[in-house]
Design goal:
Layout: E1 3-7, E2 10-13, E3 18-25, E4 33-39, E5 46-51, E6 57-59, E7 67-72, E8 77-82, E9 91-98, E10 115-116, E11 120-125
Parallel strand pairs: 2-11
Antiparallel strand pairs: 1-3, 3-8, 4-5, 4-9, 5-6, 7-8, 9-10, 9-11
Length: about 130
C-alpha cells in the first residue's frame, strides 16, 4: 500500500520560510518522479516543483528562485524548502509520485501522477 504523508506546513508571515516534507512508503522510492502541487481556495490545482528519478529539478515560474525541491532516496523523502513566502503562496501543498515519466524528466500535469498525499496547509500572512 503506497502512502505519501506531507508535513511541515503552518502559518508564517510574508518573507518567512518553511520546510515541507513528504515521507513515502510502499514503493521503490528511487524509481518514482516526485512533485509538489498546490491548490489555493477557489483556484485550480497548480504545479509547483518536481524532481526526476535522475535528480533533475523543475519549478513553476512563480516560485523559481524562492523554492527548492530535493529528494533523499535513502530516507524515502522529498522536501520542498519554501523561502521568501508571499500571501499568494497560501494554499494546500500536495506531494505526488509518478512512475511513467522517463528517468531524466518530469511532468507538470497533475493527471500524470499516480499517488498523492493528503496535503499540508501553508498560510502566509501579510
Amino acid at each position: 500500500q503506497v502512502q505519501l504523508v506531507e508535513s511541515g506546513g503552518g502559518l508564517v508571515q510574508a518573507g518567512g520560510s518553511l520546510r515541507l516534507s513528504c515521507a513515502a512508503s510502499g514503493l521503490i522510492f528511487g524509481s518514482w518522479t516526485l512533485a509538489w502541487f498546490r491548490q489555493a481556495p477557489g483556484k485550480e490545482q497548480e504545479f509547483v516543483a518536481a524532481v526526476s528519478r535522475s535528480g533533475n529539478t523543475g519549478y513553476a515560474d512563480s516560485v523559481k528562485g524562492r523554492f527548492a525541491i530535493s529528494r533523499d532516496n535513502a530516507k524515502n523523502t522529498v522536501t520542498l524548502q519554501v523561502n521568501s513566502l508571499k500571501p499568494e503562496d497560501t494554499a494546500i501543498y500536495y506531494c505526488a509520485a509518478d512512475y511513467k515519466t522517463p528517468r531524466t524528466t518530469y511532468s507538470v500535469a497533475s493527471s500524470d501522477y499516480t499517488y498523492w498525499g493528503h496535503g499540508t496547509q501553508v498560510t502566509v500572512s501579510s
